[in-house]
Amino acid sequence: MPNRYVDDSTWFAAGVMATLLYTYVTNRIGRFTISLGRKAHKLNLTLAQPVIGSDCKLEPRVVSPSRPDVTRFFLIVSLNNTGDLAATKLKGNCAITCSESTHNRTLPIFLDTLGNIPYQLEPQEFGGNAITQAIRSGQVWINVDIDLEFFGFDDKAPEKYRAHYEYSHQHHNMIRK
Q1: What is the chain's percent helix, strand, coil content, to nearest 5?
Q2: Tell me, what CATH number does 73's domain have?
Q3: Residues 81, 112: Cα–Cα separation, whole Å
Q4: Which of 142, 139, 138 is nearest to 177 (CA)?
Q5: pTM of the model
Q6: Do 8 and 85 share a domain, yes or no?
Q7: Are strands 105-114 and 142-151 parallel, antiparallel or unpaired?
């Protein structure tokens, strides 16, 4: 009759094998967890960047409530940040050029921060009957160039944002090019 009892050396070997198996499985799980953490950290750094954007519209407005028949065109430029990190120390300008050179102007932009709430520049009026008729008839060109420098995650190297808009006679509004 065979011996049903296992001797001490067999138990010792089984314990060593179980410990090695446990160590191997734990090591593999740990490496997998660390690799997921690294990917999540890279994703967080990507999300923790400011993503600057802009919008530019040309819209007619009634200038005086007492004269609702008189409308003028206003250029509305707004800056936005869709990133998770606020942009800081924004500086630059918004250059407006028009075929009617009397309406050319450059607007300085200086902001401490730009978070997730859009910032609208002062609306710029294209005043006068001549420019209003020229815009309505499509006989004018208007360009808007936005140039900005700002700081994001890295406070040492500024990032740049540039946008160019042109007036489209077909759409009767500003189109980003």
Answers
A1: 30, 45, 25
A2: 2.60.40
A3: 13
A4: 142
A5: 0.73
A6: no
A7: unpaired
SS3 44: helix
Domain that holds residue 38: 1-47
- pLDDT tens-digit readout, 76-133: 999 999 988 899 999 999 999 999 888 899 999 999 999 999 999 999 999 888 888 9
pLDDT of residue 176 exceeding 90: yes
Q: What is the number of domains present in the chain?
A: 2
Q: Residues 89, 162: one domain?
A: yes
Could you tell me the two tokens for 170? Answer: 């077909």
The secondary structure of residue 7, as a DSSP letter, is P
Q: How is residue 151 written in tokens?
A: 């700081």
32 and 103: one domain?
no
Shared domain for 36 and 58, answered yes or no, is no
